[in-house]
Amino acid sequence: MEQPSRWKSNNTRIEDSIDRQQMFNINLPCTMENKENTRPFVIRESSSDSDEDGSRILYRDDDNTRQAKIARKESLSLKLQLRPDKQDLINRNILHQVTDNELKETKEAIGARLIRRLSMRPTAEELVERNILKTQTPAEEKKQKEEKKSYLLRKLSFRPTVEELKEKKIIRFNDYIEVTQAHDYDRRADKPWTRLTPKDKAAIRSIGHDNCNGSVLI
């Protein structure tokens, strides 16, 4: 009598497990298969609970994620294949083929040149004197311009007339009279008798003698 009861209990356990599998839609793989080669299965809730939360996926092996990883690897390999070589990078001045000592010497030379330039930089006082550095506010600058304008207008109102300037010999006649532009010639340097030939000199002497002979005696 004990053996049928044991079979009955085993049968009830098997039936309960089958009902549980059917309720959760679980398709268990064969236990004899290799567990490492089996695909993970999907566990879904029963249809009775679908009205409340919907059919939620508790676990899923997404093929899209695997395909995205493969696509990324392929794109990376393609970019590595299209990567320029070392000599091309050197020719394009992207990769500098210099040693550490040469790089250090270059940096030191640039630093010394910058320090020398900074030492030659003008001071703030010099910049203010050259009207490069502004120390006044816009309102103060506007007020200073108005003061200079009024001062210049007052000076121009006391300006002397042309007659007063002529009497004081401050201006010349060409400052108030229209003069035509002409070339300046140095007549003192022009000496035509220095360019006479001996024949010209003899002719001049003969003319002088003739005039002396034909003159009237007093």
Q: Would you list the SSEs in sequence order as H and E?
A: HHHHHHHHHH
Rg, please?
58 Å
How far do the termini sit from each other?
203 Å
Label the overall shape.
Answer: elongated
- Provide a count of the helices: 10
Task: Indicate the low-confidence ranges by residue numbers.
Answer: 1-8, 24-36, 41-54
Structural class: mainly alpha
What is the number of strand segments? Answer: 0
Biggest sheet architecture: none
- Beta content: under 5%
Mean pLDDT: 74
Helix content: 55-70%
Walk me through what this model shows.
The N and C termini lie far apart (203 Å). 0% of the residues are buried. Among the domains are: 80 residues, no CATH class; 54 residues, no CATH class. The chain has 218 residues and is mostly helical. The N terminus is likely disordered. The longest helix has 23 residues. The chain contains 10 helices and no strands.
In short:
The chain has 218 residues and is an all-alpha fold. The chain is built from ten helices and no strands. Among the domains are: 2-81, no CATH class; 84-137, no CATH class.
Sequence-ordered SSE layout with sheet pairings:
Blueprint: H1 2-24, H2 50-53, H3 63-81, H4 86-91, H5 100-119, H6 124-129, H7 138-157, H8 162-167, H9 173-176, H10 198-213
Task: List the main descriptive attributes of the protein structure presented here.
0% strand; 10 helices; disordered N terminus; single chain; mainly alpha; 57% helix; 218 residues
